[in-house]
Amino acid sequence: MRRHLVPPARSSNLALLATSLGFVIICLDVTVVNVALARIREGLAIDSTALEWVVNAYTLAFASLLLSAGALADRFGARRVFVAGFAVFTCASVACGLSGGATMLIVSRLLQGVGAALCVPSSLALLGAAFPEPHARAKAVSIWAGTAALALGAGPLVGGVLVDCFGWPAIFLINMPIGIAGIWLTLAHAPDTVRHAARRIDLAGQTLAIITLAALTYAVVESGTRGWTSVTVMTGLAAAVATGAVFVTVEARHTQPLLPLTLFRNAAVNVSAITGLSLNFGYYGLMFAMSLFFQNARHDTPLETGLAFLPMTAVVTVANIASGTLTARFGYRLPMAFGQALAALGYFSLVFVHAQSSALAVALPLLAVGVGVALAVPSINTAVLTHVDPSCIGIASGVLNTARQIGGVVGVGVFGSLVRPELNDLAEGLHVAAIPAVVVSLSSLLTIVLGLKTSGSLVTDGAG
């Protein structure tokens, strides 16, 4: 008799592992490259400008394409777009590791950003499909966000170990086995989302969105070296404002827009986007500024710098799991507000940190920020999943992650312009940089309190 092979049952937990692996290597690459820059410059004999674009090419592509990637996930299915993004990212990582010159490395980093943009919105949509039950979904989102936050914070340490032991190409080549495993797990266990093939592609909207976000990202990235009042930066900001205004006009008149403006009638989407922007503004800016502070003011090595971040990153996963439990029991408003308040307290505490401060005095503000961000991030993702129609999850996730990415880019630009070794005492610069972080965090906290009228209970609110 002929035996029929029964396809293995899909596992939601393995689908969670697949999406987490994708998010982990994407977040890891945000920070892991920073500790390898000196070795890359020596190994490839490239100048400082090219070295800056090794970092910035990834950020530019990632931030510019998130909205379009979310729309593609809604139209073609989240699993298909996630796998495509994971494959592009993995292949680009290998190309980075094999690069023999600046041009190939920068182009490969650009392609990494393209792959990352395709992965992030679709990964959240896949989580929503794999965990339809609200309480299980809240906990899954907390684990997904926790592993990513842990990777983001552990980047300097992981990068330091890999570079010291195996050389700079290792920080890219390590992505290959992770990518292969993640793609296989996705195909085997992640359920696909409904494809809305009838939806037309809004080419005008996508083009304008890419130009707007690219101009904004470029201007903010260049502000660190050129200054905010330079012609280049001001031109980039003006271009972003102008094309952004045209984008809104085009989307308002389009029958099937890339970004349905009706999405912003949803309070949960608005508050989540504002909160995400503020969280990344402070967190990314802090990571950048503290890396300079540790290495230039305290004269730590790259590996010691990574270890200095360890207290903050060690509690991230625990705090994310706690956030999932709190969200499942009390709704998303409580962890969102409490996390933002705790992060604001951490930023304020930076004004008491000096180069001679004890390890504990430095660690406590970092712990407050790490726990606060880790509590808030899962709740903003859960709020979007809970209140957005499934047909728009991809683009809603794209909006949320675009807001977060813009916040991160602006945060690094602002902190970088205030904490510069050649211009000022790093401790004093850190104290000044803490002020906008506190203001932005408290403004977001006010938005949460006033903008979310209910607790965000997963039992009573539903997916309205």
Automatic annotation (TrEMBL):
Regions crossing the membrane: 12-33, 53-74, 81-107, 113-131, 143-162, 168-189, 201-221, 227-250, 271-294, 306-327, 334-353, 359-380, 392-418, 430-452
CDD domains tied to this protein: MFS_MMR_MDR_like
Major subcellular location class: membrane
Major facilitator superfamily (MFS) profile domain residues: 15-455
Protein name in UniProt: MFS transporter, DHA2 family, methylenomycin A resistance protein
Membrane topology summary: Multi-pass membrane protein
Species of provenance: Paraburkholderia susongensis
GO cellular component: plasma membrane
Single GO MF descriptor: transmembrane transporter activity
Family: Belongs to the major facilitator superfamily. EmrB family.
Keyword ATP-binding: no
Domain of life, source organism: Bacteria
Keyword set, alphabetical order: Cell membrane, Membrane, Transmembrane, Transmembrane helix, Transport
Subcellular location: Cell membrane
